Structure formats: C-alpha cells, structure tokens
C-alpha cells in the first residue's frame, strides 16, 4: 500500500517558530517525524504475534524535546560525536567551536546544534514514493563552524519497512560536516513499568575495527582490531554478553557500548552496517549506510526519562546505531575525514530496515 502522510501543528518553539509533525503510514509501519531537530519521533510496527508497539524513544510534546539533552531521535550536526578541545584547523586557521562539557570539548555540533533547531518541512516525492523533506539553513559562524550551510534531510518509508533518510548539504565556505541521526530503539517495545531493557537483544555488526576513546570519551586516533574482545560483534551475539564482561575501554562510557566501528571507505556505496534482533518479539532491524563509520551506543548514560504515553526508560533501555564520519576526524591527520569545500555537495544515506521474523 502506498504511504499516506498527515501533517499537524506540533506547537511553537521557545524562539517563536511553528513546528510541524508528520505521520507516515502504510498500514504495516507508522513513523512519526518532528520538525524540531528533523527528529524521528515514533516508529510503530507489529511483533510476531501481531501486537503493534512503539519501538522508538520519543515525546508527545515539543516542550519535552526542547528540555531534553540526550539527542532523542534528532538529526545531529554540524559535526556528530566529539571534537577534542572544541577546535580544529582548517585552511591553516584555528576554528574554535562551542564548548559543550566541563572537559572543554565540543559534542554533536555545539550548544544549539541541529538537534535544537526548527526545520521547515514539506511532503515530497522520492524514489520510494511520498516522503518528507526537512530544510535548515545554518548561519555562517553558527556554533563556530564556517560557512552558511543549507541542509536537507529527506525521509521516506517503503511498504517493506525501509525507513530511508538522505542528507544533502552545501556550504558557502570550506567547512567540516558530519550528519547522523540519534534515534533510540528497543525492539521489544517501550514498557510502562520502567523495565525496558536491551540486554537480551542480539546484534551483528560488520566491522573488525574500532576507534578507541580517552577518558573524556573523545576519539584518540587509534584504530584497534576487535578480535578477542567484547567489541567483536561480527557474529550475532547477545548484547548483554559484552555488558556482563565489560572491556577496559567501557570504563569511560559508564560500562556500556559507546564506540565507533569502521565500516569502510566513504565511496558513496551502501554498506551493511549492523543487524539487531529480539527473540522475544521477533522484530529485527538492519542498518545500511554510505557512511564510513557506525557508532554503537547502549544508553549507559541515559537518566530516567519519561517518554510518550507515560512510559519511563532508564540506563540500558535501548540502543543507538549512528552512521557517521570518523569521530574527531578533523583533528586526526591519518583519518580520511575531508572538509566540505565551498560549493561542493554533501550527500549521505542511511537506511533502517524493520522486519518481523517468525
């Protein structure tokens, strides 16, 4: 069945901008998208017994999105992940960014990154049929980043459960850009009693190398093989197995997974990133992307949070799979991260493929 799209008013932001909420529905899958942060707000589909549940962390109201600090489902940019000392060198000039934490680094694009901005939205035609395109124009110097950057995020939903999003951008000056989405998922559905947990999910992540972090959770520039460690997810394993026997590197990430895996080169080709499965519900999720890296995060830093419908989640309640460029790439010469030159086009694709197995 072709997807239908409904749009409604989601309220007015603190800075006086109208925010729209789009609901994509094809009878098998329902996806909610919010113009605040170009956010994936809701994903609902059936388990093996036909029970339809919410599998994505999100809020009922704009005020909660504005108040929350865990990037719940938002588009992250200009540069996702952390940049050491909140600066980088570009064209022989030191570019200073917003400092976002006590350690003096910059994370997820600054104090008011893309996840805190209001995007305009419209219904468009895509290769998968009708979709929603969000647009935001980031001013020259916003959060310290050079160039006026025009970004579009285009979401579409197929009959078979492929949620595809394409990022396109162009800048008036040379700059760095690294866009991802920070959606949180639990394939068992979000529970009302606070018991939602991801440890029994199984994951396969198609990478043999990670980029380790320092004590401030900033990428050091090292590249280490995963063999023989809790980070080796190349064969499908229970997520809790690694959490039960945490690696030394997990001390910096509160005992959970929060690290970037290298998928391959940034050549514009789609890569099989990861597969997550819940034996309890039968739901599965696959991630494909053109991006060179994939951050796996098990919400170890998530504080008790009240979501829509009165549902509460805590630490280890879900997982994020954030397809992105190399973390701290602008500061690490041997990483292949390249600046986006003025007038050049940035294009990346991520697909979340939702299925249910018998």
TrEMBL record:
GO terms for biological process: galactose catabolic process via UDP-galactose, Leloir pathway; glucose metabolic process. It is an enzyme of class 5 (isomerase). It comes from the Bacteria. One of its GO terms (molecular function) is aldose 1-epimerase activity. Coiled coil: none annotated. The active site is at residues 182, 322. Pfam families: Aldose_epim. It catalyses: alpha-D-glucose = beta-D-glucose. Its EC number is 5.1.3.3. Keywords: Carbohydrate metabolism, Isomerase. The keyword Methyltransferase does not apply. InterPro entries: Ald1_epimerase_CS (IPR018052), Aldose_1-epimerase (IPR015443), Aldose_1/G6P_1-epimerase (IPR008183), Gal_mutarotase_sf_dom (IPR011013), Galactose_mutarotase-like (IPR047215), GH-type_carb-bd (IPR014718). Beta-D-galactose binds at residues 81-82, 182-184, 258. Pathway: Carbohydrate metabolism; hexose metabolism. The keyword Nucleotide-binding does not apply. Belongs to the aldose epimerase family. This is Aldose 1-epimerase. It comes from OCS116 cluster bacterium.
């Amino acid at each position: 069945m072709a997807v239908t799209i409904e749009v409604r008013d989601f309220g007015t932001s603190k800075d006086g901008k109208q925010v729209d909420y789009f609901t994509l529905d094809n009878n098998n899958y329902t996806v909610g998208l919010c113009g605040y942060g170009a956010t994936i707000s809701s994903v609902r589909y059936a388990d093996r017994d036909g029970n339809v549940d919410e599998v994505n962390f999100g809020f009922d109201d704009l005020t909660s999105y504005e108040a929350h600090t865990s990037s719940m489902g938002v588009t992250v940019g200009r540069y996702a992940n952390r940049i050491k000392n909140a600066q980088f060198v570009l064209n022989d000039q030191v570019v200073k960014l917003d400092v976002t934490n006590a350690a003096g680094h910059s994370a997820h694009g600054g104090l008011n990154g893309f996840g805190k901005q209001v995007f305009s939205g419209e219904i468009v035609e895509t290769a998968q049929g009708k979709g929603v395109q969000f647009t935001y124009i980031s001013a020259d110097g916003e959060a310290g980043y050079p160039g006026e950057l025009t970004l579009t995020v285009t979401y579409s939903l197929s009959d078979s459960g492929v949620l595809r999003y394409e990022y396109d951008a162009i800048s008036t000056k040379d700059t760095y850009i690294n866009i991802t989405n920070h959606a949180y998922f639990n394939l068992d559905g979000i529970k009302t009693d606070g018991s939602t947990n991801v440890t029994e999910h199984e994951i396969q992540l198609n990478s043999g190398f990670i980029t380790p972090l320092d004590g401030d959770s900033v990428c050091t520039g090292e590249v280490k093989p995963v063999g023989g460690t809790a980070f080796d997810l190349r064969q499908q394993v229970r997520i809790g197995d690694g959490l039960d026997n945490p690696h030394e590197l997990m001390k910096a990430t509160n005992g959970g997974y929060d690290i970037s895996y290298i998928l391959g080169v940034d050549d514009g080709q789609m890569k099989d990133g990861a597969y997550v499965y819940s034996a309890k519900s039968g739901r599965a999720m696959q991630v494909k992307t053109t991006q060179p890296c994939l951050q796996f995060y098990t919400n170890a830093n998530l504080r008790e949070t009240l979501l829509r419908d009165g549902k509460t989640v805590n630490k280890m309640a879900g997982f994020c799979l954030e397809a992105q460029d190399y973390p701290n790439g602008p500061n690490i010469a041997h990483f292949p991260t390249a600046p986006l030159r003025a007038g050049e086009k940035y294009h990346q694709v991520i697909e979340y493929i939702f299925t249910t197995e018998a």
